[in-house]
Amino acid sequence: MKKKRKTVQILAPQAFYLNGGARASLGGKSRVLIPIDLPVNTVEWYYAYTVARSENTETASINLLAQLTKILDPTGVSAVVTGVLLTPTGSGVCDIYLLDQNSAPKFKDKVDNFGGSFNYVYSGTRENAKNNTVQIKDVRTGRWFLGLKNPSLSEGINLTIEAVAVIEENINTQGNSQVYEMDDQKAITFGTLGWNAYQRGEYEKSLELSRKALEFSRNQGWIYNIT
Fold first, then answer.
1. Of 49, 70, 77, 162, which has the maximum CB count within 10 A?
2. CA dist list (Å): 125 to 23, 96, 177, 212
3. pTM for this one?
4. Orientation angle between helical segments 203-216 and 177-199, nearest 10 degrees
5. Residue 215 backbone dihedrals phi, psi, to 5 degrees
6. Do residues 94 and 157 make contact, with C-beta atoms less than 8 angstroms apart?
7. Band of residue 178 on the pLDDT scale cut at 50, 70, 90
8. Which of 166, 181, 162 is nearest to 225 (CA)?
């Protein structure tokens, strides 16, 4: 047996429109919670984002999974240099907080607008940022949340975000590792079909495909976001 690292998508690329705080009081949202379920044996994970002003309706292409897969050292000897990971330059700003399950409801209820506060993980949090790739090493198990917030009172923003984990697993040097890789690929295929069905509004079909994906592999944490 030997150890091998590989990338696992835990949040497929998604785009969100967030109203300014004042406008959100009349309808719409100025903040959103995204659940992040970290796969077993996660050693580190990343999220990348870019923010555009509301008049820019194009969805940015981040390609975090492809970029990380290309530069990742499977042995884990060479560390990932986040400076080589590219994200489209943003034209707006946002706040992104890494929250545990106790703090997430407080963020959603906007307790900070009424004199309250919520806790967040500093290493995974960015405020007033346009675009970036964030590396997180001190949170590696369980369910967490990314809290997206538009800090502006009046101007809406479009935010695109994607998240990828790096996991380390034991590989059978006799060749059995190919079986696990094939199962992961099947899970990704069915999970992608499920996500596409969800975006088309075909929710029952989406659930069916996502459950099928999890039958092949539970390493693809992002699929749980659909189910």
1. 49
2. 25, 6, 36, 34
3. 0.74
4. 170
5. -70, -30
6. yes
7. very low
8. 162
User: 39: which 2 tokens?
Assistant: 């796969």
* pLDDT given at position 58: 63
Q: For 79, list phi and psi in degrees, rounded to 5.
A: -75, 155
pLDDT tens readout for residues 145-168: 999 999 988 888 999 999 999 999
Task: Look at residue 101 in the predicted model and tell me its pLDDT.
Answer: 95
Q: How many residues does the chain have?
A: 227
> Which DSSP string corresponds to 143-209?
EEEEEEE---SS--EEEEEEEEEEEEEEE-TTTTHHHHHHHHHHHHHHHHHHHHHHHTT-HHHHHHH
Please give the single-letter amino acid code of residue 43: V
